[in-house]
Structures are given as C-alpha cells and as structure tokens.
Amino acid sequence: MKTVYSPLHLSHAHAHEFEGGQLIAAKDVPARAELVLDAIRGRGIGPVLAPQHFGNVPILRVHTAEFIHVLEQAWARWVGKHGYDNREAFPSAWPARGMAPKHIEDIEAALGYYAFDTATPIVAGTWTAARHAADCALTAAEFVLHGERAAFALCRPPGHHAAGDTYGGYCFLNNAAIAAQHLTDRGRRVAILDVDMHHGNGTQAIFYGRDDVLTVSLHGDPATYYPHFSGFTDETGEGAGEGFNLNLPLPANTLWPAYAQAIEVAAERIRAFAPDTLVVPLGVDTVVDDPAGGFRLEGADYTRLGVALAKLKLPTLFTMEGGYRLDTLGPAVADVLTGFEGA
Ligand SMILES: [Zn+2]
After folding, report:
1. Angle CA(246)–CA(247)–CA(249) in degrees, nearest 5?
2. Which of 104, 163, 199, 262 could lock 219 by a disulfide, CB 3.0 to 4.6 Å apart?
3. Total-model pTM
4. Is residue 18 part of a domain?
C-alpha cells in the first residue's frame, strides 16, 4: 500500500491548546506523524511518496473561498495586529446567539467567526502544513482512481472536524472530504466511514444535504465527548441528503465486541448504498488511555478493524485523523493497514 506524506507538516508546530479552561501542552504534536511514518517503514507496508500539488480548485469544492483566504492570511494578520510572532493565534470571542457577525475584517473577529474551539491554534506554518495535508489526500485519491486497492494519506494536521467554513478539533482543511469530492468529481460513488474516536462533524456538515456521498461515523457519544454539538443519532441528513448520514455513537469504555457490532451496522448501510470507493478517516484515539479518547480498543483490535474494513471489498483511501497516545499510535495505524492488506 502506498503512503503519501509530506515533511512540511512539521511547520505546524505549536506548544499549547486550551482544555478545561487551562493552557495545556498541545496534543497534535509533529512527532505524531513521524511515529506513524516510522511504523509504516518499519513494517514494510509500502513506498512512502511525496504529494503532488493540486492547487486550490479541489479544495474550493468543499471549502469557501473566504475561509481559505482567512486561513492563508491568518498568521500574518495576527502578527500584524499584535506585533509578536512567538504566540499561537487563538480566538478570544465568538458570535454566540443574539450577536451578529457583520464585520469580520479584524483578525480577532475572523478567528472567532471561523473557529469553533480553543484547541486549534494557528502558527506561522499552519497553512503550509494544511495545504500539503490536503495534497496528500488528493494524491492518495489519484492512486485509488488509477486502480490501487488502497492508499494511505498520512495527513497532519488532520481534517475531519473542519467543515466548509469552520475549523477546530486540530483540523483546518477536511482532507477526507476534499478527497471524497475529488473522487466523486471523477465519477466514483463514495461512502465515508469515519472510525476516529470523535464525530466527524465537518465531514457530516459538508455532505449533509447530498445523496451522492454517504457519510457514516462511529464515535464517542457527543452527550459526553467532543465535539458535543454534533454526532447524535437523529442527524440523518437533510433535503436530498435525508437518510445519507448515519451516526453510531458509542459509550465510554467501549471494547472491541461492541465496536465490531457497530462496524457491522455501518457496513450494512454502506453495502445498501452500493458505493464503488470507500474513504476511511482513520483515527486511533479509540485506544485505551488515549489522552483525547474514551474507548478501550487495544493491540490486535486494530488488526481486526483493518480486516473488517477490507470485508467491504472496496478500493479504499485512508486519511490520518486522531491518535494521541504516542506509544501506541504508530503500531495501531500499521496494524489497521496490515490487517486490511492481509485480509
Ligand atoms: Zn479524534
């Protein structure tokens, strides 16, 4: 299986995020992608290739031009306003109910308008890293279009929390959605099966009104887990998209048997949709003791997950999403991919 990776993810390096009202050490650290890369190479999963460059056109198929422009300019505007370049750019106010975001020209207003959390700072290299992560996903999509059984986009920053014009959850551009749209634009019928610990709210939002892309997500129940306001079972799509979004929230401490049952429910819905291509936003923050997690998958469960995904018998594009327990991250991703390949 080919992996697509860019070292430019290293330019998105920040020290902090806010959680529980405190500035804490960042969880989406550059070491994450490097550990996954080491595991891919160590297991001999296949060649590691640099992304091709696709420009803005495929990104604009799922994100607005204003949003992209703000992300691209955010750091320069932040430094221009605050006069320092050694701190992360975080929003400090949001347009809550009853407020009208009429003017979002100021960088503080723009960050509050486009961000939805305090976990996702922007630094000097954020846009470069996000752009290259999207290129990794698009390059992997091209491999699938050209007949590969599967490809792995080692994206960092991840993408599945980013919607058409919002960022958060460590995500800026929705790599999986950009790739799914690219595949759809080339005639593929795409189902997305998100197996990250957290609801793929951005992916759901992007395709929510459409019946040509099926979105399915297994995740921690948003009544308890991030992103809190999205991922419930009654979110089934709207308009033409009604019935084309399936959320399978699971409780705290979920173990493999219950997870496997949910995968089977997802697989049944996917088979009924009859896609010809699968996109899997792959997060392994489902692992026991993940600092952002809540489930208790471990060890061979990730091989089992790869086998279960292979049973759909579809050309498959994996995009790297979450996974923050650094001692298990690389092996867990490698286990999913080798489980898939061996099945
Ligand atoms: Zn996650």
Report:
1. 155
2. 199
3. 0.98
4. yes
